[in-house]
Amino acid sequence: MFIDIANIKLKAGNGGDGAVAWRREKYEPAGGPAGGDGGRGGDAVVKTDSGLHTLMDFRYKREYKAENGQNGMSKLKFGKDGEDIILKVPVGTLIRDQKTGGVIYDLKEDDMSVVVCKGGKGGLGNARFKTATRQAPAFAQAGNRGEEREIILELKLLADVGLVGFPNVGKSTLLSIVTSAKPKIANYHFTTLSPNLGVVKVAEGESFVIADIPGLIEGASEGIGLGDEFLKHIERTGILIHVIDISGSEYRDPVEDFYKINEELVRYNEKLKDKDQIIFANKMDVPGAEENLEKLKAELGDKYEIIAGSAATTENIDLLLRKTYNKLQESDYKNYETYDEAHVEVVEEVEAIRVYKEHGEYFVDGPYIDKLLRSTNFEDYDSLKYFQENLRKNKVVEKLEELGIEEGESVFIGGYEFEFFE
């Protein structure tokens, strides 16, 4: 099965906590703080791998976590940094923000890696808090939390050429002849349930990647059939080979078929109307094809390159491939920009502090407050003093006073209740 979209949750590693420790050496009677810093949490990284072609690996597992940083240790030993988690995806994968649907990254090159969630910084050990007036700090800093993000992985195939056309016009047969791909081929609609990729060798040193885009029928752009699931893969291609059943064997008009498919492409994305197309009038070996070919040339011959042939007998297949390769060399399609309009910038999480009043009670919370609380030893005078200094430095006391707090009233800081005194 072809999986081209996956919803996953990424979590970077938390930074390790700084250590509270003391020197105990035999010849150091004064001792002193000797707690080391915590290690940095691992990043959550997404990296492309040209050997992958689907997002199947993400179908069942939805949560991925990087390793936490190790806590600091005694004797000023730093904690070990956490290992990154690296998720490998096919080239051509978009990373979308799950909340907005906007594109965060467009991974269009092989071996391209991006940090989606950054690991938390390690906390400082108590040795870092020693000052001239604070000789024995009995507290250390907690590590930062790693970033978390819910994302959508969406694969858009990176093929040079896309085969489009109604079902049963011979796209899969053509693909099987010109490449080593082995798509299912049968005489009924929707045989192909996933895009098939293959490499076409035109001559020594001349080749291109071709994809059969299945499921295109009238109304595909609106979700009828399977077409809307696969239209996204057309966006990345440089040229389209529009395969038409010129024999009209299914009692359809070849010219009408051409216009209907193009209408679906434009409805899905208006920019697709500018994509180069070569028309392959297939099934010339079937009676009635010559008459339909003349009609097709009269209608479209001055606008498009039309090559008549047969995938079944291989008539003019070499000519089609040569014309396609030459047109690719004239195109600059590989310098494309992602068609998706909405892009989301990844902004590093700010350690905000919220000070607010709700139902007559006062609250202080936020990531910074959470970290400050985890860093505080409430049984140690110096640690409490450091806690209060940080609240003042970050204008928490000032904001509480602006909200009208008075001495003796309670304030809830990160889930702990304190009595307010100026």
TrEMBL record:
It is found in: Cytoplasm. Signal peptide: none annotated. CDD domains: Obg. Its cofactor is Mg(2+). PROSITE patterns: G_OBG, GTP1_OBG, OBG, OCT. InterPro entries: G_OBG, GTP-bd, GTP-bd_Obg/CgtA, GTP1-OBG_CS, GTP1_OBG_dom, OBG_GTPase, OCT_dom. Keywords: Cytoplasm, GTP-binding, Hydrolase, Magnesium, Metal-binding, Nucleotide-binding. Mg(2+) binds at residues 172, 192. Its EC number is 3.6.5.-. Residues 1-158 form the Obg domain. Pfam families: DUF1967, GTP1_OBG, MMR_HSR1. The keyword Cytoplasm applies. The keyword Metal-binding applies. Residues 345-422 form the OCT domain. Belongs to the TRAFAC class OBG-HflX-like GTPase superfamily. OBG GTPase family. An essential GTPase which binds GTP, GDP and possibly (p)ppGpp with moderate affinity, with high nucleotide exchange rates and a fairly low GTP hydrolysis rate. Plays a role in control of the cell cycle, stress response, ribosome biogenesis and in those bacteria that undergo differentiation, in morphogenesis control. HAMAP family: GTPase_Obg (MF_01454). Monomer. PANTHER family: DEVELOPMENTALLY REGULATED GTP-BINDING PROTEIN-RELATED, MITOCHONDRIAL RIBOSOME-ASSOCIATED GTPASE 2. This is GTPase Obg. The lineage of its organism: Bacteria, Bacillati, Bacillota, Tissierellia, Tissierellales. The gene is obgE.
